[in-house]
Design goal:
By secondary structure, the chain is mainly alpha-helical. The chain has 2 domains: 6-43 and 155-257, no CATH class; 44-149, no CATH class. It has 8 helices and no strands. It has helices at residues 6-18, 44-69, 77-98, 106-149, 158-175, 193-205, 211-220, 247-257. Helix 1 (6-18) runs antiparallel to helix 6 (193-205), helix 2 packs across helix 4 and helix 5 (158-175) crosses helix 8. The longest helix is centred in the middle third of the chain and has 44 residues, at 106-149. The protein is elongated, with a radius of gyration of 27 Å.
Length: 264
């Protein structure tokens, strides 16, 4: 029997928390818990590692392109002659090496066709495309730096908080009240249904964070609108709340968390 997916495991926990009956194929399904990441890096070290790699890659590719192609505004006959000689030698050598090989995959066939067509021009075109994508990625990383990492306090676990808030909104939307949070005096284990469900979901998603801290933050960031019970009036009026509420509002709420210390 096929093991349940992560989404199915999370859905099972949510259904138990909200006391949902087992649904048949024709019944409207309850809202699902959005488990996508608001930020793909869990820690600042991961962010810095990627940004450093992109910076170095861009520097290296730009240096290679400048060395081989030269400055477009300062083309000289000498550089053109050098490029022609280099292109001839490199392309000839690649084709000679290609003659004794046979492709064993589609990607290998594409690569060999590119070499046969002319390694120098095809490689430079791919590098130009790759530089363009890396430049776009660097711009995205700079936006993430302002939103997630350029903070004075210790960065929070944004993924943990996002999941906690989404679960709290689901609970509030269906139950019409805020979920409670807390831990037992004996061992510090979650002592409420909401916190126990959150702990189980963290285990499924392999999130390492304080359940109590994330739950407390999430409940405190619920609004009056989150407490309005969603009622489906017909089969066609399906509940389509993703993540327990408006995603844009959820993101704006999370942005506010970036200025809040992660300390309990």
């Amino acid at each position: 029997m096929k093991d349940p997916s992560i989404e199915e495991q999370v859905a099972s926990v949510v259904d138990r928390l909200l006391g949902r009956p087992v649904q048949n194929a024709l019944a409207p399904a309850g809202a699902t818990l959005d488990v996508s990441r608001p930020n793909i890096h869990d820690h600042k070290s991961e962010y810095l590692r990627e940004k450093g790699a992109v910076d170095r890659a861009l520097e290296g590719i730009s240096g290679l392109l400048e060395a081989v192609l030269g400055d477009r505004s300062k083309k000289t006959p000498e550089h053109e002659a050098m490029f022609s000689r280099l292109r001839t030698v490199v392309d000839h050598g690649a084709r000679r090496r290609l003659a004794v090989r046979r492709p064993d995959s589609t990607s290998e066939l594409i690569r060999m066709n590119a070499i046969q067509d002319g390694l120098t021009i095809n490689a430079l075109q791919v590098l130009l495309d790759y530089r363009q994508e890396l430049t776009q990625r660097l711009a995205e990383l700079k936006v993430q730096e302002r939103q997630f990492w350029a903070v004075k306090h210790r960065p929070a676990n944004y993924f943990a908080r996002a999941v906690a808030l989404r679960l709290a909104r689901l609970y509030a939307a269906e139950e019409g009240e805020r979920p409670s949070y807390g831990t037992s005096r004996d061992g510090g284990h979650p002592s409420t249904e909401y916190c126990r469900a959150l702990e189980e979901i963290y285990g499924i998603l392999e999130i390492k964070a304080s359940v109590k801290s994330a739950a407390k933050w999430a409940v405190n960031n619920l609004t009056d609108d989150d407490l309005k019970t969603n009622v489906s009036s017909s089969i066609g009026d399906l509940l389509t709340v993703v993540g327990g509420g408006n995603r844009e509002n959820a993101y704006l709420t999370l942005e506010g968390a970036f200025r809040i210390s992660d300390a309990e």
